[in-house]
Amino acid sequence: MLLTISIAVVLGFVLIFAMKRVPPPMSAEQRAAEGVNGAGAPLDALTIERFEWVCSRLLQALGLDVERSTTIGRRQLEMLAVNPAPIVGGQFVVHGELIAVGDVVEAVQVLALLDAVKGEGASKGVLITNGFFSDEAGKAASGGPIELINGRRLMDLLQRYGLAASLAPEAHS
């Protein structure tokens, strides 16, 4: 009996360690982009400080006033922005996730943003990443006041508003 339990425990630990070495399944976004991270090299090389600066400039270009910005470690940021326009305006909670190539933003980050939106009494939440979202993250955001911006869409927005050049290291001031 003791031998059976010991073997089961050891086998359990072996399986846990083996699962950690298996990469997570690719999301539909990643498959559509053929496994490339969000927008490629310009966004992959960002530091959290540069990512915060780029996100802040993009929000300003979109007509939002950034009231507060905080970095959390080396991979996350939180911003509070306001659209001052009457009727359509309101408060926005913006989270940024700077992820490594091949990683995805999971549903837990979307749920955390939903909680922050409710806690702040904001109109909307925006989750920006340099990479992709897992399929579960997309499902968690559907139906809620959340907008997901992956690396490809981020790069498109930066180009549309003339901010793509700000990704170059010497462009930051």
Compile the SSE list and pairings.
Elements: H1 2-21, H2 28-32, H3 41-44, H4 48-61, E1 65-72, E2 76-83, E3 90-97, E4 104-105, H5 107-120, E5 124-129, E6 132-133, H6 135-141, E7 146-149, H7 151-160
Parallel strand pairs: 3-5, 4-6, 5-7
Antiparallel strand pairs: 1-2, 2-3
Helix pairs in contact: 5-6
Can you describe this structure?
With 173 residues, the chain is an alpha/beta fold. It has one domain (26-171): Trna Endonuclease, Chain: A, domain 1. Helices cover 43% and strands 22% of the residues. It has seven helices and seven strands. It has a five-stranded mixed beta sheet with strand order 1-2-3-5-7, sandwiched between helices. Helix 5 (107-120) runs parallel beside helix 6 (135-141). The protein is elongated.
What's the rounded overall pLDDT mean?
Answer: 85
| Residues in helix, % | 40-55%
Strand content: 15-25%
CATH architecture: 3-Layer(aba) Sandwich
Instruction: Give the CATH topology.
Output: Trna Endonuclease, Chain: A, domain 1
Number of strands: 7
Supply Rg: 19 Å
Instruction: List the secondary-structure elements in sequence, H or E.
Output: HHHHEEEEHEEHEH
Characterize the largest beta sheet: strand count, sense, and whether it forms a barrel: 5 strands, mixed
**Distance linking N and C termini:** 68 Å
